[in-house]
Amino acid sequence: MNFKIIFFIGLATINITCTLAQSSNSNADFWNNVRFGGSIGLGFTNNGFNGSIAPSAVYQFNEQFASGASLSFNYAKYDEDKLLAYGGSVLSLYNPIPQIQLSGEFEQLRINRIIATSTIDIEDNYWLPAFFIGAGYSTRNVTIGLRYDLLYDDNKSIYGNALMPFVRVYF
């Protein structure tokens, strides 16, 4: 993926977040609108497993919009290949109605991959962008749903496929 496109997506996300922040109630106490929590994710294929945990904080602009940042830790194992990834993301959440949550998330991960061959293990370390769009069912503080990686690369991604279930919890 071209760095210019990734940079543009990041700037657009920051711009939208700042615009929404300026339109929120300026008299409200900032910390009363911050929600802490995160998500966990699991992915399975015929020959592997992927698990992730991502603690995050979001600012609740109003009942429908929230935006924030997240740290991420991922582990994956496919056949004899092992992957470890860590990084961060920016995310935006939109609830058109209280029970439905739509999301967009730009994630940048550092990948440390070991590929096992019959003779040697090959180490491959690189940066990987992901841009997820998702939808989920919300009840109180919990959202369960699916997200799809628009930048999915079958050769580099640590995820088993572009579609991944998630569970988000915010308090």
User: Count of DSSP E strands?
Assistant: 8
* N-to-C order of helices and strands: HEEEEEEEE
The chain-level mean pLDDT equals: 85
Structural domains: how many:
1
Low-pLDDT segments, ≥5 res: none
Question: CA-to-CA gap between the ends?
Answer: 35 Å
* Binned strand content: over 45%
For the largest beta sheet, what order do the strands appear in spatially? 1-2-3-4-5-6-7-8
Shape: elongated
Name the CATH class: Mainly Beta
Most strands sheet: 8 strands, antiparallel, barrel
CATH architecture: Beta Barrel
* Helix content estimate: 10-25%
Number of helices: 1
What is Rg?
17 Å
How would the blueprint of this fold be written?
Blueprint: H1 3-23, E1 34-45, E2 48-60, E3 65-78, E4 81-97, E5 100-116, E6 121-139, E7 142-149, E8 163-170
Antiparallel strand pairs: 1-2, 1-8, 2-3, 3-4, 4-5, 5-6, 6-7, 7-8
Structural write-up:
A hairpin with a 4-residue loop joins strand 5 and strand 6. This protein is elongated. It has one domain: Porin. The mean pLDDT is 85. It has an eight-stranded antiparallel barrel. It has 171 residues and is mainly β. The protein is built from one helix and eight strands, in the order αββββββββ.
Short description:
This is Alpha-ketoglutarate decarboxylase. This protein has 171 residues and is mainly beta. It has one domain: Porin (Beta Barrel).
Annotation keywords:
171 residues; mainly beta; Porin; eight-stranded antiparallel barrel; 12% helix; elongated; Alpha-ketoglutarate decarboxylase
